Amino acid sequence: MSSPRVLVVDDEDDLRELLEITLLKMGLDVDSAADLRQARDFLAGGDYGLVLTDMRLPDGLGLELVREVTSSGRATPIAVVTAFGSADNAVVALKAGAFDYISKPVQLDQLRQMVQSALKLATPAPAAREAAVDSRLKGQSAAMQALRAQIGRLARSMAPIAITGESGSGKELAAREIHAQGARADKPFIAVNCGAIPEALMEAEFFGYRKGAFTGAADERDGFFQAANGGTLMLDEVADLPLAMQVKLLRAIQERRVRKIGATAEEPVDVRIVSATHQDLARCVEQGKFRQDLFYRLNVIELALPPLRARLDDLPVLTDAILARLSGGGQPAVLGPGVLDALRGYSFPGNVRELENVLERALAFANDGVIHVEDLALKGAKLAATEGTVPTQAEVPPPPGGPASLPPAPAATAPQPPLPDLTVLPSNLPEYLERVEREIIVRALAQTQYNRTQAAQLLGISFRQLRYQMQKLDIQEP
Ligand SMILES: Nc1ncnc2c1ncn2[C@@H]1O[C@H](COP(=O)(O)OP(=O)(O)OP(=O)(O)O)[C@@H](O)[C@H]1O
């Protein structure tokens, strides 16, 4: 088999030579063009595993080549070399369909990483091929089919993606799917809930710290960026990031480098950023809560997840998949007469997560593996008045058992248990508080048969807060 061929397009002799030599050393065949005209000639005559083009060329812009290659229907990844500090160019190129970009002065380690990622796209990993056949995002509606197709395309680039959609509509699942279908599938996928990290710990959590950087930093620790190196970092609820952290994040994304707290040197990180929020980020920018420059950086490509009530045709496929999962490999429960109609009439403010909760609870009541309408306990919930009516979030009352991630009912008037009798003070307060927190959460979960929605309500916290604390304290479901 011949080695993959790369086309380098650059009019600066020194840089072109540097790129050529680096690529040749990687065992690749290289063709070089000094302008657009030559590049077009090469492209007309052959197939390339990667095209690497400078942005400014004597007879036009590299961007034109990006558009030509992406609209030609070929699967050739094309990356651009941007001038130092021209972040805007990088975003424009990514929006036009570039696979990735690299800034001048070119760092050879970054160049090699990028080339390797590009070449992997030509030979998808086994996991990626499987994922393409059997997506975890279920649904046969036109909206879901279009979404899956879009994800397939987005998985082939490094462009930052901003996923929008209501709570429980599958944003994290979509992000995982993009990761699983891309060249980074065999590297980590790290999801971070930006709203659940205390502000004081944020920098340490994102960038890590050196031993002794602050009181309590007993060992050196990596942050999310290092943990996701080579893979994907999902910034969930990105609108909740405090402004000070937004500045630091923007820098890390632009420079592709981070510095641990207490470290003198920066380290390179190769991370694809996917962000998600159920808020209107553009509105947050208008209100001054979110930085315009970070918004521009994160929002290169938008992926919108439709709410479940806008794709009720997916209910049969979704219920089948959820019941199969809940059966744990045994005989899945079936839906009795009228159940699908009852579900169709419901507005699902908590989307697919709520459907999962409804079915899980119904299963506990169902006899002989058949779920009946009354087992759904949808009675108290407002039903969509007529088919096709889409209630707004504000109109929709919480479903029985609580919506998955909507804020819990205020517990201001509920009596609180007395504080523990502390005749002996704890010698390590954080450790002690963790123990208390763990004990409380485990009890709440036991009391609700591990229904996390109900446990969160019981404790007056949101579903996501509970999920985050369970992850942090490593509390597993039995
Ligand atoms: N299309 C789908 N097919 C199968 N399962 C789905 C689908 N969409 C969502 N789910 C399931 O619904 C649950 C919620 O999905 P996910 O966590 O991705 O939503 P989210 O939009 O990120 O929610 P939140 O905003 O609360 O974080 C998960 O258990 C997920 O597996």
What would you note in describing this structure?
The protein has 19 helices and 16 strands. The protein is globular. Helix 17 packs across helix 18 and helix 18 crosses helix 19. The strands form 5 sheets. The chain has a 5-stranded parallel beta sheet with strand order 2-1-3-6-7, with helices on both faces. Strands 9-10-13-8-14 form a 5-stranded parallel beta sheet. A two-stranded antiparallel ribbon has the order 4-5. The chain has 4 domains: 118 residues, 3-Layer(aba) Sandwich (Rossmann fold), CATH 3.40.50.2300; 179 residues, Rossmann fold, CATH 3.40.50; 88 residues, Orthogonal Bundle (Helicase, Ruva Protein, domain 3), CATH 1.10.8.60; 72 residues, Homeodomain-like (Arc Repressor Mutant, subunit A), CATH 1.10.10. By secondary structure, it is of the alpha/beta class. The two termini are 51 Å apart. Bound molecules: adenosine-5'-triphosphate. The site of adenosine-5'-triphosphate has 20 residues, from helix 8, helix 14 and helix 16.
CATH class of the largest domain: Alpha Beta
End-to-end C-alpha gap: 51 Å
**Estimated structural class:** alpha/beta
Number of domains: 4
Strand order of the largest sheet: 2-1-3-6-7
Helical residues, percent: 40-55%
Count of helical stretches: 19
Major β-sheet annotation? 5 strands, parallel
User: Overall mean pLDDT score?
Assistant: 85
Second-tier CATH architecture of the largest domain = 3-Layer(aba) Sandwich
Task: Quote the beta fraction.
Answer: 5-15%
Q: Which radius of gyration do the C-alpha atoms yield?
A: 25 Å
CATH superfamily of the largest domain: P-loop containing nucleotide triphosphate hydrolases
Organism: Pseudoduganella buxea
GO biological process, one term: phosphorelay signal transduction system
Domain Sigma-54 factor interaction: 137-364
Protein name: Response regulator
